[in-house]
């Protein structure tokens, strides 16, 4: 799947995080615009750990009223499900046809949106009494990767460095920003979350989350989650970090990965 397409990802984020002071100074001299935005770097602390299904190839994740809503991928295994954090119970609410590979999910009002990877289709479900009923589809160009919302608009990634602002009523694209880290585009933006007015994005195949100014696309911070899932807990099916959810009422951040056995609540700490 995607992993096969992108096996040698060495993006600017990784290189720049490990860059020396001398390199940074040289960059600043030759690129004054980039010097204006020095991204912060964060490490993390695990607040709590919860079970997560190793059969869930996490592509979309958000929090709502004690439940984590998860959209999963893989052909024949793509679904929308809820995970009750207090009991660990998982309920499958929708399944995609075998021909579709599920991607990001987001809720706006009483509607849940689900992207597909290469089917150019977003499914829209009505949310009533904790159940999903499909009510319409929208078509869009290119691939579907991550999806989130500020409560009004949708924000969608497509595997490039671009984030599209999308009207949920029509699925028309209203705006596009290119996400940059020190002036360099950041490709493979994956699962998304809206946290405190910023866009958080998993960067595919890395252990890093980019914190992005949604107006400009500038990466203002990097959260380095290296080591979050200990090697001893990784299984053959364990895949990359993906999935960010935010409980705005309690200011809690949840992260997990594709087929990971655990889901974590974390706090971030500036380095
Ligand atoms: Ca999310």
Structure description:
This protein has a single domain, classed as Neuraminidase. It has an eight-stranded mixed β-sheet. The protein has a four-stranded antiparallel β-sheet with strand order 2-3-4-5, with no helix packed on it. It is mostly beta strands. Strand 12 and strand 13 (173-178) form a beta hairpin. It has helices spanning 2-5, 12-17, 21-30, 32-35; strands at residues 40-51, 58-64, 67-72, 79-84, 90-95, 102-108, 111-116, 121-128, 131-139, 147-149, 154-157, 162-166, 173-178, 180-181, 184-185, 189-195, 198-203, 208-212, 219-224, 241-247, 252-257, 262-270. It starts with a helix and ends with a strand. It is built from four helices and 22 strands. Calcium ion (CA) binds at residues 61-62, 148, 191-193, 244-245.
Low-confidence stretches: 1-12, 14-35
**Rounded average pLDDT:** 89
Could you give the order of strands across the largest sheet? 16-17-18-19-1-22-21-20
The class by helix and strand makeup works out as mainly beta
CATH superfamily: TolB, C-terminal domain
The CATH architecture designation is: 6 Propeller
Distance between the termini: 34 Å
What is the CATH class name? Mainly Beta
Compute the number of structural domains.
1
Which band does the percent of strand residues land in? over 45%
| Tally of helical runs | 4
List how many beta strands DSSP finds: 22
Major sheet: size, sense and barrel closure? 8 strands, mixed
Which percent bin holds the helix content? under 10%
Backbone shape: globular
């Amino acid at each position: 799947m995607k992993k096969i397409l992108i096996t040698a990802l060495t993006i600017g984020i990784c290189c720049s995080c490990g860059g020396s002071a001398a390199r940074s100074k040289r960059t600043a001299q030759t690129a004054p615009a980039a010097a204006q935005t020095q991204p912060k770097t964060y490490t993390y602390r695990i607040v709590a750990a919860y079970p997560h299904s190793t059969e869930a190839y996490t592509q979309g994740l958000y929090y709502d009223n004690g439940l984590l809503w998860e959209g999963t991928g893989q052909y024949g295994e793509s679904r929308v499900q809820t995970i009750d954090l207090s009991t660990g119970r998982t309920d499958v609410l929708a399944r995609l046809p075998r021909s579709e590979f599920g991607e990001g999910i987001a809720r706006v009002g009483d509607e849940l949106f689900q992207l597909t990877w290469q089917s150019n289709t977003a499914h829209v479900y009505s949310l009533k009494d904790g159940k999903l009923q499909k009510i319409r589809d929208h078509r869009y160009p290119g691939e579907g990767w991550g999806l989130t919302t500020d409560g009004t608009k949708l924000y969608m990634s497509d595997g490039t460095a671009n984030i599209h602002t999308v009207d949920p009523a029509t699925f028309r694209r209203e705006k596009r920003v290119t996400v940059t880290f020190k002036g360099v585009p950041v490709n493979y933006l994956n699962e998304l979350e809206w946290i405190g007015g910023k866009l958080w994005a998993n960067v595919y195949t890395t252990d890093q989350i980019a914190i992005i100014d949604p107006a400009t696309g500038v990466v203002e911070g990097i959260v380095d989650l290296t080591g979050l899932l200990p090697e001893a807990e990784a299984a053959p099916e364990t895949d990359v970090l993906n999935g960010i959810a935010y409980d705005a009422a309690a200011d809690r951040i949840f992260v997990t990965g594709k087929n990971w056995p655990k889901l974590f609540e974390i706090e971030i700490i500036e380095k």
